[in-house]
Design goal:
The protein is an alpha+beta fold. Helix content is about 35%, strand content about 10%. The protein has a seven-stranded mixed β-sheet, with helices on both faces. A five-stranded mixed β-sheet has the order 2-1-5-13-14, covered by helices on one side. Strand 9 and strand 10 form a beta hairpin. The radius of gyration is 33 Å and the shape is elongated. The termini are far apart.
Amino acid sequence: MEKNNSASRMERRKQNKKPPKRFRKFLTYTAVTFLVLFLVIVVGGGITVFSMIKNAPELNAQNLKYASSSTVYDMNSKKVISINGKEKRDYASIKDIPPRVRNAFIATEDVRFYKHSGIDPKRVAGAIMSNITHGFGSEGASTITQQVIKNSFLSPEKTVTRKIQEAYLALKLEREYSKDQILEFYLNKIYFGHGAYGVKTAAKVYFDKSLDQLTTSEIALLAGLPQRPNGYDPVKRPDLAKDRRNVVLSLMEKNGYISEQEKEKAQSVPIEKMVVKQKEETGPRYEAFLQQVIDDAEKEGISEKDLFEGGLKIYTTLDPDAQSQAEKILSTDDYVVYPDKQFQAGVVLLDTKTGEIRAIGGNRLSEKEQVSRGFNYATDTQRQPGSTIKPVLDYGPAIEYLKWSTNTPIKDEPLEINGKQVQNWDKSYHGTLTMREALVQSYNIPAIKAFQAVGEDNAKKFANNLGLGLDKIYPSYAIGGFETGVSPLKMAGAFSAFGNQGVYNQPTTLRKIEYPNGKVREIKHKPKKAMSDYTAYMVTDMLKSVVSRGTGRMAQIPGLDVAGKTGTTNLPQGVYGNGSSDSWFVGYTTRYTAAVWTGYDKTGSNMYVRKDDQVIAKLIFKQLMSHASQGKMTADFEKPGSVVARGSELYVQGTSVPALAQPKYAKSDEDTSKSDQTEEAKKEEDVAKEKDKKEEEKKTDQEKPKDDGTTTTTPDTPATPPKDDQGGSDQGGNGDNGQGGSNQDGGNNQDDGTNQDHGTDQGGDNGQDGGQQDKPDTPVTPPKDDNKPDKPAKPEKPTEPTTPPKKDTIQSNSVSSNRSKAQSDTSN
């Protein structure tokens, strides 16, 4: 009896719980309704829901039936091409779409599709709560009906006005068309990737099957694609495609469309066995540029789905003439002679003043060979920058934060960091030389000393102001030994600020976007003051010296004021030869900036940039910059009032002639308890300081007014480099990413570095125009150094190119950190 009473009490409790649950649901919907009405009333400073509805577009049967791909326009607002290039469409009526295919999309996109009237109150409630807690637009509540409306008539912007119009038109669509008709519109409009619009076309593209032949696993894969066609691409991203397919299968099982056993069986099928081998699709014109347009649009919050289905008009920064020329330069031997088909290159040309990208050469394939969404060496690659990084991490920050002059003397002498001996490309030391000469000759030790004087935090701050986005840096970064690497796009953006008085503009391909309803969205990025104008000009002046008499001479262009920097990186461990893994040139004028990378996809014994081919990056720059600048007025770089010229050297206004820049030696972890200097070294330092003081007094006397009231200033004289007729070498740093042999402790893999002939302006016999090596201007003999440093070491005798390094030697010009094994050789 007691047991029965207990059961009765339990039943009564259950019965008593049901009304409150229904009541709570009623309250929820009531609250949601009032909240929606409240938002409608107060939105837009008095704009009412009626005016929003009044301005909503009319329903159009043609727009409902077919999806509209976005159209791309160039810098002159002329139509160029569809964002998708060649499209594939095969319309399917609802009766030809099997119920299990329909059910997969309903379970994934709108499980109550057949129950609501175009708007799902439950989804609206969830979306409102999410938007309240996470901000407006954080979660959508769109039904399939609303998606059809948005993709046919409205903009993809997440605004209240659009949502009100979308809801109104969805209700109207449901009154004028049946559920099956609306589902038919949807399944034929959505984009599945690889140029396929509609579910029938997608089944043929991915599986070479008709809709009635598809398996449960194949149906689920298709149902998961529309959200992110490229992101879930089963051909390029099978792991992500598998995860997405399994989510769809779980939703199908949850909503009763398949059993748990069917779900598990379908989830066990490998993606690679499902998808047929894709024919390599010929990419559209300007493929490399269009790839960046898509990337930039997604960064602006425009989804891939909206790009391919939304019928947008995308106004870009494309210069068709420059783009065509970039593609010709890379894909033919008409302008530059390439060593073989495997040799790759990437180039970016952008406007120095605005950051607008004018052209992108993504690889060396011809227009007919281009593959849709293929690898882009101008934007996708991450390679070691070599010595191109020195203005960004070393000398630029030294001017910005320490106000060094171009004449600041730096002592090039033995330097050890964390137990590693740092060396220059020629394995020699050159005594005291100016910052300008150190950059022109691309010596490593002075660059690292500048980096140390500035400090890692300031160097990183300076680089990140130029868009490099570095999380951490080590001494190896000072000469290009990155853990990962950079792209030509990043380097072009960074260098453009030097040519724009220190103002950085984020590189972009977009100007504005026009939606189907006529609304226009301007795409503008706020310019950023990345450095002082004196820093920008003084770095530019030194880089002009690199081009006029240093390692960048082959990039000279008659009639143009060009500044730039070369960069190469050492061969990885186990690869021996006279060459490098990467070869760079980044240069600019007041009008354009261009960054060029050359090399092989993967460096190997017969796949590396040989010495004679290191000139190719400079020749690509020269050809493209010359063509783009033809017929355009390009001003010379103008010295700002914050810079004072004394002879050929530059100083920040208000500073005096600099004293000797003393090195800061880093200790290894093992030597932290030892003294940094011996007593004898301290005495020598005291003597050096006394001599410096006397030199300052002597210079002050020289600057005393003459009888005519004028003054005479004698700038410091740079040191003479080793006797050689070839400028500086350009071997650069290698990091941990497998491109530079980061663990090389037993040699530099450059045949002791002495076969470089001290120059990267190598022409050789490769048939390049002007390929013979130029002689640099003869540097002035330096003043006597009263500090009497050790006699510069003579370059070691070269070995044969194929001779592997000895195991007990230290890698030439390598720098290690106790936190990073990245090592770097000298880089021009």
